[in-house]
Every structure is written in C-alpha cells, then in structure tokens.
Amino acid sequence: MAIRTTSRTRLTVSATVLLIGAAASACGGGAGGGAPTDASEKEFCQTQSSLLEDLLPEDMANPELPSDEQMAEAVKDWGSKLEEVGTPEDIPDDARKGFEAVVEQANEIDASDFSIEKLEELEAGGKDASAEAKKQAAAFEKYLTDTCGNPLDNLDLPEMPDSN
Q1: For residues 123-140, b (16+ Cβ closer than 10 Å) or e, as one string?
Q2: DSSP string, 21-54
Q3: Roughly how many angstroms between the first and final C-alpha of the chain, as a whole number?
C-alpha cells in the first residue's frame, strides 16, 4: 500500500509543480511569447488542468503511473497545447511572463526532470531563480488560481489507504 501513497504523492507533486511552481525556476520567457492573448477563460482553464487529467491513472484502486519518459512526453504535449491556446486578454504582464516561463520549461523537460531530487528542487521554487522570475511565477500562480481555481479541486481523487 505504500506504493499507492507514493504514486499518488509523486503524481500530485509532479503535476502541481509543473502547473504552478515551475515558472520560478525558469530563466526567461522565450517560448510562449508568440502564444495567443485572446483565449477564453474556459479554454485557458481546461488547457491548464489537462495535464493532471491526462496523467491520472484510470483505476486509482490499482494505479499504474506513466514512466518518467511518458510523463516528459505528456508535459511536452501539454506545453504545446498551452502555447497553442495562449492566455486570456486580461492577464497581467507579470503573470503572462510566468505563463511563458511554464511553456518554455514544459518544452524543455525530459525524463530526468522527474527524479525526486529535481522535483523537490522545483517544489522549493527554484533556488537560483531571480527575484523577477519568482515574482512572475507568483503572479501567474495567483492569476491561475483566481481565474481557474485550484487545479486539484476539480479532480476526483479518491482517498488512498494509509500505509500503516
């Protein structure tokens, strides 16, 4: 049963880090700069949460998580969707730059980025990120939460048994 708890934790941490916290560790916003700025809020929010939905195991009672390679491919596909859909027109400039950093990072991800060490580093907000990058990440996180709510709120995650 410890595997289930670990699997759920790994999936949740991986997806949450990539959805909201990853922008803090990105260096700049090259990719994503050409993404549209006229997305509807509904389409923007659906695209943001699509990574979590795509990666969740179909059977949570007996979860089979994707491999690190499959997760990297899913994140790259998600990054392409983000760039294709873009952001709503009303997104603040700092939040848009945070979005661009997420797109850039998603496009550059590989399987080694899913190691526990790298995930812990990302979750910590990217220790080497500049104050500006952290400000942009926080602005994007706030915009995303204010506009779409918490991405984990809309997912039907059953409670996993304790590993005790």
Answers
A1: bebbeebeeebbebbbbb
A2: IGGGG-----TTTTS-S---HHHHHHHHHHHHHH
A3: 8
Select from 124, 132, 48, 55 the least CA-distant residue to 86: 48
pLDDT tens by residue, 46-92: 998 888 777 776 766 666 777 888 888 888 898 899 999 999 999 99
Cβ count near 13 (within 10 Å): 16
Q: What is the dihedral of CA 116, 121, 122, 126, to 10 degrees?
A: -170
Amino acid symbol at 143: Y
Kindly compute the dihedral angle of the four CA atoms of residues 164, 67, 123, 6, in this order, to the nearest 10 degrees: 0
Tell me, yes or no, if the pTM score tops 0.85.
no
